[in-house]
Each structure stands twice: as C-alpha cells, then as structure tokens.
Amino acid sequence: MKVSELGEFGLIDLLAKMIAEAQDGQPGYPPFLVGIGDDAAAWQGKNRTQLATVDSLIENIHFSLDTTSWEELGWKSLAVNLSDIAAMGGTPEYALVSLGLPDNTEVDDVSSLYRGMIELGKRYGVSLAGGDTCSSPVVMITVTVFGTEQDALLLRSNARPGDAIAVTGHLGGAAAGLEMLSRGLSPSAEIATSLRESINKPTPRLAEGQLLVGHGIRTAIDISDGFLVDLRHICEMSRVSARIDVDRLPVLPPVRQVFGDKALEMALTGGEDYELLFTGDSDHITRIQAESPCPITVVGEITGGNPGEIRLFDSSGNPVKIRQSGWEHFRKR
Amino acid sequence: MKVSELGEFGLIDLLAKMIAEAQDGQPGYPPFLVGIGDDAAAWQGKNRTQLATVDSLIENIHFSLDTTSWEELGWKSLAVNLSDIAAMGGTPEYALVSLGLPDNTEVDDVSSLYRGMIELGKRYGVSLAGGDTCSSPVVMITVTVFGTEQDALLLRSNARPGDAIAVTGHLGGAAAGLEMLSRGLSPSAEIATSLRESINKPTPRLAEGQLLVGHGIRTAIDISDGFLVDLRHICEMSRVSARIDVDRLPVLPPVRQVFGDKALEMALTGGEDYELLFTGDSDHITRIQAESPCPITVVGEITGGNPGEIRLFDSSGNPVKIRQSGWEHFRKR
Q1: What is the C-alpha separation between A86 and B160, in angstroms, rounded?
Q2: DSSP string, B150-209
Q3: What DSSP designation does A248 have?
Q4: What is the DSSP string of B261-314?
C-alpha cells in the first residue's frame, strides 16, 4: 500500500500503534503526561540538566536507498542523535521524529523504518514521543533527542596541553562500508557484514560516554565528520594544538584487509564512525581502558601552539601528510 | 555569496553570531549550560512539565519562495511550532532548528530566514538553542520547540457534551492569502497586507492559550489542518460529536471582501490559520471574552452522538453542506 492511499492520519495511527506496542508497560520507558496524538509531547522534568540534539538525514545527500535498507535507515537516524548525547556524557530519554516522504512511498517501508528506530530505542530505553509526517520530494528524517545529565558534561572546549587523545572502538569502517556498497565490492560474507553495519547501523557509545564522565574525563566529541575534522573542532574550541601517531590509530581490521594502504586515510578522514574522540589525563584513561568492554586506544597528545593545528607522525617520528580532511556540507571541493 | 562558498562551518558560525547578538544579555532568555557549538544544547530543567513539539516546512510542499519571503519563512517555521505549544497552554522556552538547503542558496537569504525567526523568538522570549544544517535538494526547515507548563494542559481529549465551542481571532485568512498570492490577485494594499500576513506571518496564540488554562478550559487544538479537520480531531479523541452554526464563524473581513461566497468554505476548510479552537463551559468563555484583547467567538456546541461527527447549520437552523474538509498530507484527492 502506498502512503498516498493510507493518508497522513492513517500513517500516524499506524506508527502510534507500532510505538505503543513496543513501549507500553515496558520497564525503562518513563511515562508521558501526553504522548502521540496531541499537539506536543509532555513529561515531568526531573531535577537534572536536560539535553537536546537534532539531526536530519536526507535521501541522496546522507544516504541512498540503494545501499541502506529502510530498517537500517531508521536505526541510523536515531543512532546519530544518540551519539550526540553520548558525546556529552548524557543519558537519552525521548525522541521526536519529523518524517518527510514522497507520496509513492510504500507503507511497509515506513514500518521497517520505524522497526529499526524502535529496535535501537529499546536497547537504550529511549521512547519515541511523537512527531510529524509530511509530503516531501525525497525521504527526509529529522530526529530530535532529549536527554539528561547528572554529574558533569563532556564538552569540546575542555582539552588542555598534556592531555592524552583517545578514541573508542575502531575507525574507518563507515567510509569503507560506503565505498564497498556504492562500488558493489564483494568481500567475504563476514567482512561484508562488518562493513555494512559500520556505515548503516552504528552503535552510539552511550555507556562509554557515561563511563568517561565517571572517570573525570571532561572533553569529548563524536566522530561524525571524520577523525581529523572532529579533532580540529576540539582543538579550535579548546584553543590548543594536537599531535597524532597515525600508526596507533585503531583502524578496523576488515578495512585494511579490503582497502590496504587506503585504510589509514579512511580512518583519518572518513566520516560517520560515531566513535567517541576524547582527551584527558593518561592515568584516568588507563583506568577507563581496564573497565570498558569497548576498546579504548590512545593515539596522541594535546599540545600548546597554534589553536586548531594538528600534526601527524608515524611511529618513527616522521611527519605524515594526508590528502583531504573529512566531510563538510555545502563546501565545494 | 553562495552557501557552497561559505561552507557549513562558516554558515554555523554566521548563524551562531546572529543568534548570540540577538540574545546575549537580553532579559527573558534563560542561560544555557551549553549552547550552539557543542554536540547538544543543555539547560537546567525546572520543577515543571517540559513540552516539546516538532514541525517541518518543505519547499513546494508547505511553501513556495514565489509567495513567501525568506524572512517570512523564518517567522512562520517557528510560529507553527509556537502555536503547538500555545495549543497545550504552555510557555515556549527554546528551539532547535534543522535546516536543509540547496548548495546554491544565497547566504543573505539564510540570514533573512534567521532574522524572521529571531524577530518572532524575541517577541516571546524563545531562545534558538542550536541545530543542524545540511545540503538538501529543496529548502527544508524542521523546528523543535521546548517549553514548560505549570498548572494544567489543554488536551484534545477533554471535550464533553454541553461544552461551548469557540475560536480565537478570525478564520480563512491563510487560505485567502495563499490564493491571492498564487493567483496574483491585486486587492487594495491594506487588504493585500492583511491576507499576506495571514498566510506568511501567523501569530501564535500563546497568551490566549495561557489565559484559557487560567480560566479552567482544558480542551484545545490549533487550527493548522483547517477548522473542520481540527474540530474532528477533538471530537474523535474526546468521543463526542459537534454542531456548528456556520453564520457565527468569525470569517476575516477581507476574505469576504475579496472572495465573497467562497469565504465561508475558506474559513471552514482552509488550513494554517493557527488560531486556537477550544471547548468549555459557557460561563468560563464569557469571562475569557471579557479579559482577552484577542476576539473570542462561540461558534457551536459539543453534543453526544457519533464520535467525530460534525453537523453544520445556518442561523435559521437549516443544514449546510461544504465541499471538502481540509488539508491532509499524502492523501490523493
């Protein structure tokens, strides 16, 4: 059935039912005063800092339905916002979704989209609290996530010379996955699954963000634009410089296996890995490494010098140059 | 200058500066713990109910740049969300904006867009707290507004048989304005301005929403889809029926002057008037009428009977039929 046959209100009813079925009576979903079906969502605020973040995914700009399934799209559209909450050290609570759809969109596809969102939401106790659907020339998903923070925030502006620079998980998987899918490469099934999940089903590092806060870390960003661009954001906002040992970067193993020498560039400049990039005292980071199930790798150091400058070296101390510095919207290349 | 020449981060810097200049040190803007430039906005929640709502405006679906200026578009994209907060009886506090723009968009136009948003935000003490910008095939604006509520909420589900049905302000102006602009009609300058503002610069009825709550009203909706469609939402969610005296509808006078007999249909079915439609005790409404600077008109009564059914009569008691029932996305007509 087409969306145009079901109609907007039919679509809202369908989605509201899907969400209610997924959430009603489930532990971990705080009750709303007002949920889907009224003019706005409402909930009782607690005595805590509220967090909010918004991101849009637009067809043929941020994703292609040739390389991303509707279910993956739903997962990812929520994941990128949860990642922003993770990068603040916060706990996500609720999401609002604004969905723009071409009139000939299949309703089953919209259901799959929501299934992906609900699956991820369940994993982290995030309620879908309502939103808006409308006609659009291309698929467009804007998710707003609200969260709270109790103890301290991870900011981009808190890096200090002498801080170690570290990242969660592995890098380069998203760029490699996108290239594999768009060029139609066929590595082994295991590698293909790993790379496809890297680009289409990123894991927001929520537990890690909260662990960082608990261990005294105060500086972090999520890697959405690429390691180098996001590190530059930290350096500019903290008025510091950085040096990176590129040989220590935790490149995702399948990326090296499929792309060889190009893997390092993918890890440095490919966007959308949604790992946390953070800085802090080495002793704190050692304790975090011991406690975290997710790998944590130290890759360099914050220094004084030109604010925003990043120098790359290999493990022998030789300078390294790379070709481009990551993803930025609008800018002509 | 084109957006593509300035780049995303240049654009964010520009917008952050505009917003900071408009808000810094101004009374009525609650301070953020974290504002624009980090991964998410953060603020200290108070001991009150938080409200949140989101709406998207998409080029050539919700608006055309032939008939809406960029500044009007900015105003309107915030106004439609503030109207949702008004329809809950709440107070808006913060907004997040996700902006999708074609690469060849003029930066001056984006500044105008924000000027319109800032102008309306200032009027109601609403901070622009950050957001997201990205490339898009058409202009796309998604605004999320956060607010609070202290005493009680206006819901769609609280209407009871015997309630009077009333509306704020006048109806039909938005539909008439859109028709005037898209057909290139040229009424007198005064009428043209009134109709243009009706469609492009709606006034969110925030003070009125709060006044309703204060006088014991508990049922309201904002007229975004059209008087009849939105009244049907109230009737369906409250499991009641309604009868309307169409001769009592407060049709905006210029609509009658330009469109004659078609004015009534515009008032009943035209969307986007963003007036409040509410129900409640007649005595309460009489007191509200005495206190409100904005006209309040009683137009009918909530009755028992088929949930969602709306019967129209003229003042002689004869049944009235109209051709269509309002605006709905996706549905083929």
Answers
A1: 45
A2: SS---BTT---TT-EEEEES-BSHHHHHHHHHHHT----HHHHHHHHHHHHS----HHHH
A3: G
A4: GGHHHHHHH------EEEEE-HHHHHHHHHH-SS-EEEEEEEESSSTT-EEEE-
Q: Which residue has the tokens 């009886």?
A: B89
Cα–chain center distance at A256: 22
A296 is written with which tokens? 């944590």
Of B310, B294, B291, B293, the residue nearest B302 (C-alpha) = B310
Whose CA is closest to A142, among B132, B62, B110? B132
- The 10s digit of each residue's pLDDT in A27-70 is 666 677 777 777 788 887 766 788 999 999 999 999 999 999 99
CB distance B177 to B67 below 8 Å:
no
Distances (CA, A) of B320 to B162, B165, B267, B314: 21, 18, 14, 6
The CA distance from B58 to the nearest CA of chain A, in Å, is 7
Which of B44, B142, B146 to probe the A interface (max A CBs under 10 A)? Answer: B142
Lookup: tokens for B27:
């009374």
Considering only CB atoms, B56 lies closest to which of A3, A55, A132, namely A132
**Partner residue opposite B3 with nearest CB, options A9, A101, A330:** A330
**At how many degrees (to 10) do helices B173-183 and B189-200 cross?**
110
Three-class DSSP category at B85 = helix
Chain A positions touching B46 (Cβ under 8 A) are 45
- In chain B, the domains with their CATH numbers are 3-40+47-149 (3.30.1330.10), 164-313 (3.90.650.10)
Other CB atoms within 10 Å distance of the CB of residue A119: 15
Residue of B nearest to A49 (CA): B44
Q: Which residue has the tokens 């803007």?
A: B29
C-alpha span between A286 and A35 (Å, rounded): 43
Residue type, B14: L
- Residue B143: which residues within 8 A CB-CB, separation 6 or more? B54, B55, B77, B78, B80, B81, B95, B96, B97, B98
Closest alpha carbon within chain B to A3:
B330
Q: Cβ distance A70 to A110 under 8 Å?
A: yes
Nearest residue to B24 via CA among B131, B148, B118: B118
Q: Which residues of chain A are within 8 Å of residue B89 when distances are taken between CB atoms?
A: none
Cα separation, B205 vs B213, in Å, equals 13
- Read off the amino acid at residue A11: L
Quick check: ipTM above 0.90?
no
pLDDT in tens, B111-170: 899 999 989 998 998 888 877 888 899 999 999 999 888 788 999 999 999 999 999 999
What span, in angstroms and rounded, lies between the C-alpha atoms of B104 and B89? Answer: 40
User: How far is the alpha carbon of B321 from chain A, nearest alpha carbon, in Å?
Assistant: 23
Closest-CA residue to A153 (of A80, A210, A232): A210
Length of chain B: 333
